[in-house]
Each structure stands twice: as structure tokens, then as C-alpha cells.
Write a structure and sequence with these properties.
Number of strands: 6
Number of helices: 7
Largest sheet: 6 strands, mixed
Helix content: 40-55%
Structural class: alpha+beta
Shape: globular
Oligomer: single chain
Radius of gyration: 17 Å
Strand order of the largest sheet: 1-6-5-4-3-2
């Protein structure tokens, strides 16, 4: 079976510096450290509580990801870019239970980059558009994620020093 859908890509110019935005974003969001199989099997409730304790703003977590900027620098590139994979692993787990295909889209991905003119941009695909492939409950979560993304972007763009 094949299905087509439209994805809304957002490229947003942000009134901030690369350093300020990435520092604020990384400070605002929690870090997800995958639990061990042993903790999941032996203490699922304790593991869930440990995950919840590490959540950041909007109960979001950053997942480990690669650095595309590093590869660009190896090839002579000069602009800066960071890729973030983030979301809420507990929410994602609930969504995957409802519809396994959601696992293709969680965690959410976003890039932050600076162009040659030192202008800052954030780029991402709106979760509500790819979650629209699934049932109304999943789609509703996607709409909520759209709002959380905007809140985190606005927060991260502020001068919080």
C-alpha cells in the first residue's frame, strides 16, 4: 500500500545569533538517555520516572544526533549548522502503540543554520502534516507539537544572558 501526503516545511528566519540560539535551545530542552533493557524489564515504573525527571521545557528531550556541520567543515564549508532530534520519548511510545508507523517520524528533526550573511534560520517539517497520515488522536498530538516547537524557537531566540 502506498499513500501520498503533503508536508509543510518551515524555514524561519530568527532574530538571534547562532551561539545565542543554540545555547538557549540546548539549555531549555532535556536530554534523553535511552534506558537499559535491564531497567525496562526489571523496573518499568522507575525507568519512566527517571525519564520524566530529565525533561526540559514543554516536556521535551534532545536525542543524540550527528553533526552535519562537521562534514561540511571537512569539505571546506564555512557556515554553521546543527541538527537536532528531539521530542518526548514517552509521548512517542504512546503514539507508536496507537499506530506503529509514527515511529518513522519520532523523534522530530530540526536544523539551525547560519548563512554567509550571518543570518540565522530554523528549518523543520511540521509534525501535524506527517502525523495527519494517522488517526485523529495522533494528528491532534501533531498540532500540539507544532505549538511547542514555536514556543521553544521563540524562547531560544531571546537574549537570556
Amino acid at each position: 500500500m502506498e499513500r501520498s501526503f503533503t508536508v509543510t516545511k518551515v524555514t524561519q528566519k530568527v532574530d538571534s545569533t547562532f551561539e545565542n540560539f543554540t545555547k538557549n535551545f540546548e539549555a531549555a530542552i532535556g536530554r534523553f538517555i535511552a534506558p537499559t533493557d535491564e531497567s525496562v524489564d526489571n523496573d518499568p515504573e522507575g525507568t519512566i520516572e527517571a525519564i520524566k525527571a530529565k525533561g526540559g521545557m514543554e516536556n521535551m528531550y534532545m536525542f543524540p544526533t550527528g553533526d552535519p556541520g562537521q562534514m561540511l567543515r571537512l569539505q571546506g564549508g564555512t557556515f554553521r549548522v546543527k541538527q537536532y532530534a528531539w521530542g518526548n520519548p514517552l509521548m512517542a511510545g504512546n503514539l507508536v502503540k496507537m499506530s506503529i508507523g509514527v515511529a518513522l517520524y519520532a523523534p522530530f528533526r530540526m536544523i539551525v543554520y547560519e548563512n554567509d550573511e550571518k543570518e540565522l534560520f530554523v528549518e523543520y517539517d511540521k509534525p501535524s502534516t506527517y502525523f495527519s497520515l494517522f488517526d485523529e488522536k495522533v494528528k491532534t498530538v501533531g498540532l500540539g507539537l507544532d505549538e511547542k516547537i514555536e514556543k521553544l524557537i521563540n524562547h531560544s531566540a531571546q537574549d537570556l544572558s
